[in-house]
Design goal:
The protein is of the alpha/beta class and 300 residues long. It has 9 helices and 13 strands. The chain has helices at 41-48, 89-99, 104-117, 133-145, 163-178, 190-196, 214-221, 260-271, 287-299; strands at 3-12, 15-25, 30-34, 56-61, 74-77, 151-155, 182-186, 199-204, 207-213, 224-230, 243-248, 252-257, 277-283. The strands form 3 sheets. A 6-stranded mixed sheet has the order 5-6-7-3-8-9, sandwiched between helices. A 4-stranded antiparallel sheet has the order 11-12-10-13, covered by helices on one side. InterPro entries: AAA+_ATPase, ABC_transporter-like_ATP-bd, ABC_transporter-like_CS, ABC_transporter_ATP-binding, DrrA1/2-like_C, P-loop_NTPase.
Amino acid sequence: MTLHINHVTKRFGSFTAVDDLSLTINDKQIFGFLGANGAGKTTTFRMILGLIDQSEGQIDWNNQTIDYSITDKIGYLPEERGLYPKMKVKEQMIYLGRLRGMNKQAIIKELDYWLDRFKIPDYKEKKVEELSKGNQQKIQFISAVINQPKLLILDEPFSGLDPVNVELLKEAVIELKEKGTTIVFSSHQMSTVEELCESLCIMVKGKPVVQGSLKDIKRQFGKKNLLIHAEMDLEFLKEMSGVVKYAQTAEGCRLQINNEETSQQILTEIVQREGFIKRFDLLEPSLNDIFIEKVGESYE
């Protein structure tokens, strides 16, 4: 069940929110959308779900438009949470599950599983407004997956969560993917996207500026990171050919360099100097490095 987004544009009057976006998101994949606020991520999600119509282009999943006939196979967690604060968790899940064609017994079974999974089994009879923000977010997540969706769209699912709950939610996302769910999500947390996603799209002002598999994106970026811990002054490396960025750290420095050959030249240079080298690591570029450079280029 592949999701195709083909030359999609969305205009609101004279404002273009999404501009000629084309993507293919394969079955049973975790796909990440990145971008600053206003980049067009949420608008794209709403078009995929059929909540708003695109101005141009075509979107289909499993060769058909997403509409009410297949919403029982879709899950959606919006960035702006939409739970009913006065309703108890159990009542809310029964209501939402029934809207997706589930029977009460199946809803309760799924609810019990996820409450146990998130270590909050005693929250079933609590009102949403009685829960902490983090636990409300867990309930919102459960509402998006209660129907065992084949396609799950998560808009900023990790926003505002503490590290423990981020890990719980990441484990849940991976579990769903392993069970066959295609997952599309947005996040400002680069390390989380890097950890979870096989493929991604970085959007700026509605346009895709980077897209493809994470492995290919890193390879095409070209630049590497070099981490050096040494008992010597390393500031001379700022002026070396091939060094793009220099950042001093508590134990040495972190460099961005043009290629692997530059790292060899740096190693040759520092071993000739007086002082002990404790660490010399050549690292892949981080997604954060790529995001900052590509988004910055688009704003110049």
